[in-house]
Amino acid sequence: MQKGRGRTSRIRRRKLFRSSESRGVTESYKPEFIELMKWLKDRKFEDNNLKPAHFPGTGRGLMSKTSLQVGQMIISLPESCLLTTDTVIRSYLGAYITKWKPPLSPLLALCTFLVSEKHAGDQSPWKPYLEILPKAYTCPVCLEPKVVNLLPRPLRAKAQEQRTHVQEFFTSSRDFFSSLQPLFSEAVESIFNYSAVLWAWCTVNTRAVYMRHRQREGFSTEPDTYALAPFLDLLNHSPDVQVKAAFNEETHSYEIRTASRCRKREEVFICYGPHDNQRLFLEYGFVSVHNPHACVYVSRDILVKYLPTTDKQMNKKISILKDHGFIENLTFGWDGPSWRLLTALKLLCLEAEEFTCWKKVLLGEVISDTNEKTSLDISQKICSYFIEETNTMLQKVSRMKYEEVALINQLTLVETLWTEELKILQVSAEILNNLQTAFT
């Protein structure tokens, strides 16, 4: 038997394949990363812990070169590598920004710099960083309208607000862009077009780290908290990790320390915050599978969908909920209907003779077994309605994936969001069933 052809060898190869598949494949050999690391080294950045890699599920990220211990510094990026408003104001754009009235927002200054430098191509000193930035984004503002219409209603509304915001951001900035014409041989309208500005806006909003800057003359009073951090921004999000991240004034570096261990050749994560999937989709353009913070939102119209229309006190009850902040952020989660949702339903289910007890409901007191059971009944009906709606939307998305092949990446992302919400609703339905059983 030839060496490497036996059963033991096949098993070993399968294990190695599975290991490399789960731990990612290095990309540090790729020209764009070789150039990036040279560029970073010229700016005094040295890294012995991480290297670029491609991972199943998360895509491009950073892999640990060695085992990382709790509290260990995983990255320390010098200030010279960061792209901030200081970078912009020191550039050829500085004179145009400082004389512009009304003053520019820090966000617009950064977006303008990104578009301008990207247009400069090989002439840009930031080219090695620009080359590894995404060419396109998957935030709702970038999705086709027919895909946006497939989003859950609360997210769909926010997506439409986001699109309006970015369009207004672009429109209100045109006069400033026109003032930059002396810097370019081409017409600025062709350089600072909507798609270019949208790309820059998404780059800052999805990739910038938080870094507080002093209020600088020449900018508006909006908080200046953005910093683009080359290489560091390759770190992907996981809701299960904890890190300490901040700019160190003593070392003049943006530092990240891990609060958990990581084995060699595993993907290193950071946490963007305790965000649910709709927030992650809206702000960053991705969905986190098995996200412990994921939830399904119950809107006001669904909240009252299964309540009796003959209730003469309904408007008063809604007013009370609104006045006490119980009309928003009502959800189903991995632990079933939230306390806020059940509390709102208990108040809405109060009988006429119980209505005077509404303050006790908001304090979490039990009014009666009937009230408890009725609110659970309504919660079950709402949950069942959502399950039916979610299955319908999943079927619709599945059909569109065959009909709209060009949109398959966008549709797959929407499908993942609905799938995760269905899992939550199924868990909630089981929990509600068990709660109802306790009354029988």
Question: What's this model, at a glance?
Answer:
This protein is α+β, with helices and mostly antiparallel strands and 440 residues long.
In sequence order, what are the helices and strands, one letter per element? HEHEEEHHHHHHHHEEEEEEHEHHEEHHHH
Structural class: alpha+beta
- Cα gyration radius (Å): 26 Å
Overall geometry comes to globular
Helix content: 40-55%
Stretches with pLDDT under 50, minimum 5 residues:
1-5, 9-21
For the record, give the distance between the C-alpha atoms at the N and C termini, rounded to a whole number: 69 Å
Sketch the major β-sheet.
5 strands, mixed
Number of strands: 13
Count of alpha and pi helical runs: 17
What is the typical, i.e. mean, pLDDT?
Answer: 92
Order of adjacent strands in the largest pleated sheet? 1-2-3-10-7
Q: Hey, roughly how much beta strand do the residues contain?
A: 5-15%
Can you offer a commentary on this structure?
This protein has 440 residues and is an alpha+beta fold. 48% of the residues lie in helices and 11% in strands. The protein has 17 helices and 13 strands. The protein has helices at 7-23, 31-42, 85-89, 94-99, 106-120, 127-130, 145-148, 153-179, 188-191, 194-207, 277-284, 300-303, 314-323, 339-348, 358-362, 369-403, 408-437; strands at residues 25-26, 50-55, 59-64, 73-78, 209-210, 226-227, 236-237, 243-248, 253-258, 267-270, 296-297, 331-333, 336-337. Strands 1-2-3-10-7 form a 5-stranded mixed beta sheet. Strands 4-9-8 form a 3-stranded antiparallel beta sheet, with no helix packed on it. A hairpin with a 4-residue loop joins strand 8 (243-248) and strand 9. Helix 5 crosses helix 10 (194-207) and helix 14 (339-348) crosses helix 16. The radius of gyration is 26 Å and the shape is globular. The N and C termini lie far apart (69 Å). The model is unreliable at 1-5 and 9-21 (pLDDT under 50).
